Amino acid sequence: MKQLRFAFILLAVIVSVRGFAQTTVKGHIINERGDSVEYVSIGIEEDSVGVISDAQGQFTLTIPAGRKDELTFTHVSYQTTTIPYATYSDGHELTMTLKDKVVELPDDYRERLSSRITIKQYRVSADFIRNTRKELKNCAILVQSFP
């Protein structure tokens, strides 16, 4: 009877500890072309739980016990992606594919940009080039005359 009681208590402790265990999420982030995406922000929105992927797109995130929030993946060049708890809770390694962020420019963007750019043209005469060449030769001769 004592052994059965001990086994029941041990089982209850194991189940309760498992219920309060942290969740570790590991993964790799790629783009639609299959290239690794570096420095993606991964975390729970409006919270301090988060991490940044490394230069190879790899990440490891530890989520506190009891949290079942969605994970958000954010990068300036890609669309923000959110996944539910059920997707990352089973412990398998994730491979997240981010989609390119397309920014539409206004129709008159090129016209507005070109109006701000000023290109100056200079005309140089052949005489100016000949005179400059003579002056440079004179400077070279002068420099060579010093010991």
Description:
Strands 3-2-5-6 form a four-stranded antiparallel sheet. A three-stranded mixed sheet has the order 4-1-7, with no helix packed on it. The chain folds into two domains: 20-98, Carboxypeptidase-like, regulatory domain (Immunoglobulin-like, Sandwich); 109-145, no CATH class. It is elongated. Helices cover 34% and strands 25% of the residues. It has four helices and seven strands; from the N terminus they run αββββββαβαα. The protein has helices at residues 2-19, 85-88, 109-116, 126-145; strands spanning 23-31, 41-43, 50-52, 58-63, 71-75, 78-83, 94-98.
Furnish the topology, listing elements before pairings.
Layout: H1 2-19, E1 23-31, E2 41-43, E3 50-52, E4 58-63, E5 71-75, E6 78-83, H2 85-88, E7 94-98, H3 109-116, H4 126-145
Parallel strand pairs: 1-7
Antiparallel strand pairs: 1-4, 2-3, 2-5, 5-6
C-alpha geometry: elongated
- Just name the CATH architecture of the largest domain: Sandwich
What does the largest sheet look like?
4 strands, antiparallel
CATH class of the largest domain: Mainly Beta
Return the average pLDDT rounded to an integer: 80
| Distance separating the two termini | 110 Å
By CATH, the topology of the largest domain is Immunoglobulin-like
Count of structural domains: 2
Q: Pairing-aware structural class of the strands and helices? A: alpha+beta
Q: What percentage of amino acids are in beta strands?
A: 25-35%
Q: How many H/I helical runs?
A: 4
